[in-house]
Amino acid sequence: MSQAGDYAAVKKDIAALLHQPEYDDGSAGPVLVRLAWHSAGTYDAETDTGGSNGAGMRYEAEGGDPANAGLQHARVFLEPVKRAHPWITYSDLWTLAGCVAIQEMGGPEIPWAPGRTDFVDDSKLPPRGRLPDAAQGADHVRHIFYRMGFNDQEIVALSGAHNLGRCHADRSGFSGAWVQNPTRFSNTYFRLLLAVDWKHKQLPSGIRQFMYIDEDLGEELMMLPTDIALRDDAKFKVWVQRYAEDRDVFFEDFTKVFAKLMELGLKRDESGSVLNTDNVKGGYISAPKKGDVAGKPEKSNEEADPLKEQNKKFSARL
Ligand code: HEM
């Protein structure tokens, strides 16, 4: 067990678990980035509710939101880290893991600060329906991200995270990866968005997405309707072009905006201490690791075992 506050030790252990040869494209990184984003992306600036504090996905009300389908894989990947560092809150662990994953996959170093607490019950969780719906267009995307306090440039920069990972038919209904190398952070997503003639595709389930077949590689790539909306909306497109042309500018802007995303819902004083009521009154409450709750048999793999089986099936289909 590490010393409380030794975040460097936690980072090291997160980096060590990213390599997962049995899972998806061989890395836990992309799904950890998605966990970090969904943990924060519930923020509503007007009511100052939601955001990265609390680790609400531990509760059914938030964890069971269909928009969060599949993120149990990310949480299971992180359980050994929680076991090794039980003092860290889940909310800090999930956000830190996203930042570490981005950097380890060749992305920029995202400034990250600790101090999030884990809610002790589900009474303060945001309502479902605050995360974006990929089947919609530019108006919806603006509605969702303006609510969190982001502008058009920040929306496009954040969307560059779709350079990582893939869609899973059994999670979101969409299927496939955006780029050929989905475990390497780069600006390829923006370049492909502009360079390729994306065609409509209807999946057997009836879901509509966009596709392109790379003839040389014999690989099919995909875009969500919300991704295509960034290309087709004149104000978003300016930023898609900028980031497609200049990787360094994208990395710089992504660093700032992802750090901002991870801070949504937190108020800090000048020394960095979190001033939210729960954190001030309750302190740094680190929820117990699943399965280690007193009185219950040690069953830390409750969630992991069936998922391992499922993951094997995913890899077999690839
Ligand atoms: C309009 C906004 C967005 C929409 C509609 C959207 C939608 C989606 C959908 C449908 C998936 C596939 C999930 C699955 O089937 O497993 C996905 C995956 C992903 N998203 Fe987004 N997303 C949005 C913004 C973002 C942002 C802001 C980030 C991070 C900054 C992000 C990071 C990711 C990552 C890394 C994956 C891959 C996950 C994996 O490989 O398991 N997305 N997104």
TrEMBL record:
<keyword id="KW-0575">Peroxidase</keyword>
<keyword id="KW-0560">Oxidoreductase</keyword>
<dbReference type="InterPro" id="IPR002016">
    <property type="entry name" value="Haem_peroxidase"/>
</dbReference>
<feature type="compositionally biased region" description="Basic and acidic residues">
    <location>
        <begin position="289"/>
        <end position="312"/>
    </location>
</feature>
<keyword id="KW-0479">Metal-binding</keyword>
<keyword id="KW-0349">Heme</keyword>
<dbReference type="InterPro" id="IPR044831">
    <property type="entry name" value="Ccp1-like"/>
</dbReference>
<dbReference type="InterPro" id="IPR010255">
    <property type="entry name" value="Haem_peroxidase_sf"/>
</dbReference>
<dbReference type="GO" id="GO:0004601">
    <property type="term" value="F:peroxidase activity"/>
</dbReference>
<dbReference type="GO" id="GO:0046872">
    <property type="term" value="F:metal ion binding"/>
</dbReference>
<dbReference type="GO" id="GO:0000302">
    <property type="term" value="P:response to reactive oxygen species"/>
</dbReference>
<keyword id="KW-0408">Iron</keyword>
<dbReference type="GO" id="GO:0020037">
    <property type="term" value="F:heme binding"/>
</dbReference>
<dbReference type="GO" id="GO:0034599">
    <property type="term" value="P:cellular response to oxidative stress"/>
</dbReference>
<dbReference type="Pfam" id="PF00141">
    <property type="entry name" value="peroxidase"/>
</dbReference>
<dbReference type="InterPro" id="IPR002207">
    <property type="entry name" value="Peroxidase_I"/>
</dbReference>
<feature type="domain" description="Plant heme peroxidase family profile">
    <location>
        <begin position="71"/>
        <end position="274"/>
    </location>
</feature>
<feature type="region of interest" description="Disordered">
    <location>
        <begin position="277"/>
        <end position="318"/>
    </location>
</feature>
<comment type="similarity">
    <text>Belongs to the peroxidase family. Cytochrome c peroxidase subfamily.</text>
</comment>
<dbReference type="GO" id="GO:0042744">
    <property type="term" value="P:hydrogen peroxide catabolic process"/>
</dbReference>
<comment type="function">
    <text>Destroys radicals which are normally produced within the cells and which are toxic to biological systems.</text>
</comment>
<protein>
    <recommendedName>
        <fullName>Peroxidase</fullName>
        <ecNumber>1.11.1.-</ecNumber>
    </recommendedName>
</protein>
<dbReference type="InterPro" id="IPR019794">
    <property type="entry name" value="Peroxidases_AS"/>
</dbReference>
